[in-house]
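Note to self: the last two entries modelled the partners one at a time, which told us nothing about the interface. This time every component goes in together.
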Amino acid sequence: MNTTIMLFLVQDGITNGAIYALLGLALVLVFAVTRVILIPQGEFVTYGALTYASLAAGQMPGTAKLALALGIGAFAFDLFVARNALHGRLIVRSALTNIVLPAIVLALTVYFAAQKPPVAISIALSLVIVAMIGLYLYRVAFQPLAHTSVLVLLIASVGVHLALQGLGLLFFGAEGQRGPAVLSGAFTAGSLRFTGQSLTVYSITIAFIVALWLFFGLTLYGKALRATAVNRLGARLVGIRTTLSGQIAFLLASVIGALSGIMIVPITTLYYDSGFLIGLKGFVAAIIGGLVSYPLTAVAALVVGLVEAFSSFYASNYKEVIVFMLLIPVLLLRSLAAPAVEEEKD
Amino acid sequence: MSALLSVTDAHVAYGKVEAVRSVSLEVGQNQIVTIVGANGAGKTTLLSAIMGILPLKGRVAFAGQDLARLDIEDRVAMGLGLVPEHRELFVTMNVEDNLQLGAFRIERNKAKASMERVYSLFPRLKERRKQFAGTLSGGEQQMLAMGRALMGEPKLLMLDEPSLGLAPIIVADIFRIVTELRAAGVSVLLVEQNAQAALKIADQAYVMELGEFVLSGRASDIAANERVAASYLGFQHEGESVI
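The predicted structure of the combined assembly is written out below.
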């Protein structure tokens, strides 16, 4: 192996690792705040990617309709929960966020899909559509279960994953799609060739991580989210609603997922079910981070990306096996470090 | 004048076990009311139920409004604050963040002034404001828990065993601050095993045994009651048998 190949593999590994890092961070965030292990994270990736690719190809993505359908469901849940104390303001607010918003986005999507919109509009629409799906999914599938055990939440999570994957097949068909590059062009530095797309991936990942860091470190809502993760009862006692924290967490996770998808789809052909495996690699990173540590997760994600790049070169048939085998020594080490696992407290 | 908090015929159960039975109590404006009783009498359970953490059968009204349908978060927004026995601090966040979050439901500009007030009540917290809550001593954690609750500008502050496990000098400090709160217009519902200290500063008192109130009245009268003295204040009147 020569240096050029090695540098290529490293570059490839870091590009993928950056995306796994974003996904891993989202998983850690959602788990810490809501105790949901977000299996459908991968579907946010495919939905984001394929919505973007469809729009760019001038097709109408079904996800916009799904957002409206889920929004109507969320609205019904809101009404049902408040059925004994219904008042006008609550109904109007719920209708605005759950029905009017997705209806407007659906109308915009229909309008723009017909005339091959510019890249920026496709990205914006895809992000908003997937963000709404994430938000309403939390309302419909997870908020009613918020008080149950991690296991119940995990089962719900698997259910949502399967449902979304099935709908993905319905919306986008079994054919793979590719989207246009966000930034075209390339330049070479020495023997390395940087494409505009890989630079986009690096810069967006770094920008997002910095933004998250600022959000959690400096803003009141970011701190409220951390507080919910640290001590749920304590957070409620200062008036932070668990549902608000859950909504923010799901919103962030779905935006991160969609963004990752939009960044990947110009590089790799994605199918309706590709997201699962991509999400799982973020999950491997999150597990290495113990589902609690953000920096450890980010570093682990880069390692996962690098291991994947090198194993696809040396033993491409075993690429996935090798990546997932990374988990075994980590789990072994963790179980040795913490012999007595405490049962869930609440 | 109607009471700030009134609890009428409250029952709280864990499954089939009734931990609190038919309890009624009132806390007036600018009052310190204490509930004393042995470990396991149901005091913490009662406070948790008033806060909305546990379901309660019966009626709880705060500032004239029935709390039945309100969540914990709504009760906080109405001005009901609880400093729980285990404090429930955000241990991996610093003192200042803990306090700032205490004012989550309060307007930003008001929160600044509240923080200054809390720092003047607890100067120790100001010294440690960049330190993680989890690294504070027990007394400092108690002060932070009280400070965090005060940041929400409660009309009624419920304190669950604030003296538990603390050195006597810190306990004295905390009780002094409780009386200062009353002077500042905050009513206090104080649950304590340290009956002697609690009865000294309280206006009204209730004695709880096995989930029920067995005695209530002015704190000074309760402190003078022989049975209470024998069971909770740690000394016996001569020639009398205890229960």
